[in-house]
Structure formats: C-alpha cells, structure tokens
Write a structure and sequence with these properties.
Chain B: It holds the Pfam family ABC_tran. Chain B: One of its GO terms (cellular component) is plasma membrane. Chain B: InterPro entries: AAA+_ATPase, ABC_ATPase_HisP-typ, ABC_transporter-like_ATP-bd, ABC_transporter-like_CS, MetN_ABC_transporter-like, P-loop_NTPase. The complex is a heterodimer. By secondary structure, chain A is an all-alpha fold. Helices cover about 80% and strands about 0% of the residues of chain A. Chain A has one domain: MetI-like fold, CATH 1.10.3720.10. Chain B is α/β, with parallel strands linked by helices. Chain B has one domain: P-loop containing nucleotide triphosphate hydrolases (Rossmann fold), CATH 3.40.50. Chain B has 9 helices and 10 strands. A 6-stranded mixed sheet of chain B has the order 6-7-8-3-9-10, sandwiched between helices. Chain B is globular and about 55 Å long. The termini of chain B are far apart. Classes of the chains: A mainly alpha, B alpha/beta. Chains A and B meet through α6 and α7 of A and α2, β6, α3 and α5 of B. Bound molecules: adenosine-5'-diphosphate and magnesium ion (MG).
Amino acid sequence: MDFSDAFLNATVLQKYAPSILSGVWVTLYLSAIIVVAGTALGLILACIRACGWKAVNFVIIVYADILRALPPLVLILIAYFGLPGVGVLWSSNLVLFIVLTLILAAFAEEIFWAGITSVGKGQWEASRSTGLGFAQTLFWVVLPQGVRMGLPPLTNRAIAVTKMTALGSVIGVPDILNQATTAQSFSGNASPLTLAALAYVALFLPFVLLARWLETRFAWKRT
Amino acid sequence: MTLPILELAGLRKSFGELEILTGIDLKVTKGELAFVIGPSGSGKSTMLRCCNLLERPTSGAVMLEGRNIAASGVRLDPVRRRIGMVFQSFNLYPHLDALGNVSLALRKSLKLPRAEAAERAAAALERVGLAERARHHPAQLSGGQQQRVAIARAMALEPAVMLFDEPTSALDPELVGEVLAVMRELREAGMTMVVVSHEMRFAREAADRVIFMDQGAIVEQGTAEEIFGAPKSSRLQAFLARQAA
Ligand SMILES: Nc1ncnc2c1ncn2[C@@H]1O[C@H](COP(=O)(O)OP(=O)(O)O)[C@@H](O)[C@H]1O
Ligand SMILES: [Mg+2]
C-alpha cells in the first residue's frame, strides 16, 4: 500500500465525500451560532461588569475563571452524561452548542473587559462632562475603542473554540470529524480523515488570515 | 447685583481622611472670566471637577443659575450640558473625527437630529478655526488643534459656563497661542469662564478676577493688577516669586 492509496484513495474519497460535506454544514452552522452567541454573551457580561456591582462582578469573575480553566472535553462530557441524570435531555448538538458558547463567552468577557479597562478615565470624564450618561458613554465612547482593541485576540479565541466542535464527535455530533472517523472505520482507509483535514483548513484558514490582518491594522495611533 | 451663574458655597471635599478643599466660597457672574492660580496640589482641579460633579463634594453647595446641583436627586446629565469642561489632556475620542467628537453629545445627549447636530458641530469647529479639519481624527491633529476641537466640543452645547483645567499645560510652547486666542474670542463673545492656568500673561490681559488658591482654600482674590502688582498674603508673594523664577 503506497502513500496516496492510504491517504488519498480516489474511490474512498468519492464514496464518503457527501457524508463529510454534510459534516461540514454541521460544523459550519454550529461554529457560526457559537461565535455569535458566545461573543454576544461575553460582551454583555463585560458591560455588566463595567457597572461595578461587587457581588455580581464576583460571580462573573468566578464564571470566567472556571470556564477558562476546565478542559472543554470535561465540560462536554459532564453536560452530556450528567444532565440526563437531573432530567435535562439535550441533544448532543445542543450540549455542544451550549458548552462551547459558555466557554467562548468566558474568554470574550475577559477580552472585552480588558478592552474596556484600557480606555482611560479621561474618556469617561470627557463624555460624562458633555451630558452623556453611563450607558451612553460605555456604548458610544468606551466600547468602540475597547472592542477594537479586543478584535484580534477575540478572533483567535473564536477560532480556537469553534475548532473544538470536533470534540462533539465524542458525543455523537455529526460534524466533520465524526463523519470522517465513521467513514474511516467503514472503509478501513484514512482518506476520509485527509478530506476532513482539508475541509477544516478550507473552513478556518480564512479566519486565521482575518485574525492576522486584524493584528496588523488594529492599532491606530493613540492621542 | 446680578445673580451669579455659578456659585460655590462652603464647598468641602475630602478623599478619605484627607481634606483637599477646606471650604470654598466663590461667585462667578455672567460673562466673567475668573482665573485661578495656585501651586500644584492646592486643589484647583478638584474644585473645577466639583463644579460639574465629576467629583461629588463632601459638603457645601454648587449653585448653577440659582439651583444647587450638588443636592441629592439632581439629574446630572442635563446639568452637565450647561457646564462645558476642557481638560489638560484634551481627552478627544480617538475613534471619531473632529466633527464626530463635537457632534456626539449634540446627538446622544441633546438628542438633535443627525443633520442638525452636524451643522452645529461644523459651526463650532468654524469658530475655533478648524472647519477644514472636520474629517481629521485626533491622531492627525496637532496638540493645539486637538485642544481647539475639545473647546468646540464643550462650546457646541452652548453651556452657561465653561471650565478650563490647565488647557495649555500639555502643549508645546509654540501651540499655546492658538488655544489662548480661541479662549480670548470666547470671552469676547460673552462666555462665562473659570480658567485654571499658569499663563500669567493671559491672566493679565483677559481675566476679570484672579483667584489664588493654596492648600484647599482661596487665599486671596482681586483684579489682575491687584494680585500680580500688589499681592497681600505672604503665600501669594512666595508663589509669584517662584513663578517668575
Ligand atoms: N481621586 C483622588 N483621590 C485621592 N486624592 C486625590 C484625588 N484627586 C486629587 N487628589 C489629591 O488632592 C490634592 C489636590 O489635587 P488637585 O485638585 O489635582 O490639585 P491641583 O489641580 O491644584 O494641582 C492632591 O494632593 C491630590 O493628590
Ligand atoms: Mg490640576
């Protein structure tokens, strides 16, 4: 058996391409809704933190720290195998979506919070002195600057978390990797995994490039 | 006797144990330029910041057009629109161009429609001589131009009084003149102003009254001639001697 036969067997590729393509859609839509929901939740948490209520902030910080510390697979398995025990029956897709959204939100909250605190006190004071309220100042003056600072790390983190959708194959989410490993075991050939790798590259490389581009241009000259 | 636009009465401010303002009484009448001098750390900035409640006084009253705005329950946002503030470090919004800096509060606080806000902002920029820089971002402007945009931002709200906290201290010497020129024009247009600054020449030519602060209190006040020509207190004499040196 030569190399191309082991990794790029044309017959196998042809046979399993449709199922891997169906996995691409699953990975793609899960990734999309995880990024949107995780970023939004992280932004909301960072804004709440900006209000400065001590008890609430404590909860947010504990949440962010724990979710950033735990290996994602542990959370996924706990949620998938543990929740039915308390009467919560979620599909594997829903479990994966919720767990990864919560993880991305934890990172996004920290990134947005860092952005918010990087905006100087003078910006708040200038805005408040012209009659803008707290929320208006946060929204129109502080967030545009803080979010912009956070975009490159956020893009990197979003890529990292959405790539974790591959962990869903462990609990039966029919994503790219799951389709590929199934095909691999049926065919006894690694070509579907090659195809999966190519699919991941096609899916994520544009975002990696976007992150790179953001990194080069995110900083405008500070006054 | 005209009613003062701005009046501080028995104003005290402590940070923790430390009393920074130890009872300030000050009346600023319409169209007056009150010029505040004093050594660093004497509480000049704190006093200004109490005027628009960026700092909440520990006790005492801040009367704006006859109303105590330091009383509890006063909605501060509308009040702050009546009090313009210009900072030493400009504090322009770096993500907005000059027009955006000036029009933000017009749109979001005063709730003017976008077109009207832009028109008023453009007029304010025109008054500080920066009409053609409206589309420049702060990073593309010199320090002097940035401070003029900041003045336009405060002025565009048509406040009853404007506070200046060392508006030229962060500027290269050659850029100080253009900012003082704008302030002079504002004064001539009848704006009521409280100016904290070390520009003694400007004080001599433009101030109606010079106020000397030291250790959280007003030690002496009078016309520029009185304060600079015939200082009474030894602390003012020592301060002026240090300034001249
Ligand atoms: N937020 C603050 N917390 C604690 N101390 C402060 C604060 N703001 C000012 N101070 C202190 O108050 C004193 C007066 O400061 P300031 O009003 O800035 O004086 P000036 O403007 O005359 O130089 C200084 O000793 C300063 O350290
Ligand atoms: Mg000061």
